[in-house]
Design goal:
single chain; mainly beta; Lipocalin; 8-stranded antiparallel barrel; two-stranded antiparallel sheet; 1 helix; globular
Length: 193
């Protein structure tokens, strides 16, 4: 059955945001990707294939929250050897630390459709507070009557702060893998209630 209903939204500082409720991340319409410099001359891109998460839009929008879990063993960079290295002891250590998690602790407006989502990011058993600058991409109803919300975010992390310190020096100077890693997130989530 198809529906042409309008999604339930409300106005917050001139922006249409979802009405209160719980949204589950739709992994088939979302991506969590990362980019790191390799040998100081190029970039390597990767993604996590399996993850889940919940976005709770509160009555007070600034009391909203998000919780996300990434399955470390599902990292994909297009090279099986590199993927095995990333999930091994030198980097993410998937056997001892199978998940990367993010749990928000606060949300604040950053102008227009942008919000600062502060929370605890845990990688390889190390938890750090990070500010995730997020953007509300919109709210819509799909042809089957499901209300969807989209968010995007980008953050740059120092991987060494999370215990990911493996590297190799290059004869020409510099290192094999950059300390800085950019994380790009595009999420679509479906209202559950």
């Amino acid at each position: 059955m198809t529906s042409t209903s309008t999604p339930a939204t409300r106005n917050f500082d001139g922006v249409a945001i979802p009405a209160p409720g719980t949204f589950e991340i739709d992994a088939s319409h979302s991506t969590v990707e990362f980019v790191a410099r390799h040998m100081m001359v190029s970039k390597v891109r990767g993604r996590f294939a399996t993850y889940s998460g919940t976005i709770i839009v509160a009555e007070d929008p600034l009391a909203s929250s998000v919780a996300v879990t990434l399955d470390v063993a599902t990292v994909q960079t297009g090279d099986e050897g590199r993927d095995a290295h990333l999930v091994g002891d030198d980097f993410l250590d998937a056997e001892s630390h199978p998940d990367i998690t993010f749990r928000s602790t606060s949300v604040s407006p950053a102008g227009g459709t942008r919000f600062d989502v502060v929370g605890e990011l845990t990688i390889r058993g190390v938890t750090r507070e990070v500010n995730l600058p997020a953007e509300l991409e919109g709210v819509a109803t799909d042809p089957w009557g499901n209300e969807r919300v989209g968010f995007s975010a980008r953050i740059e992390l120092d991987r060494e702060e999370f215990g990911l310190t493996w590297n190799q020096a290059l004869e020409t100077g510099g290192v094999l893998v950059s300390k800085k890693v950019a994380i790009d997130i595009d999420v679509q989530a479906v209202r559950q209630g």
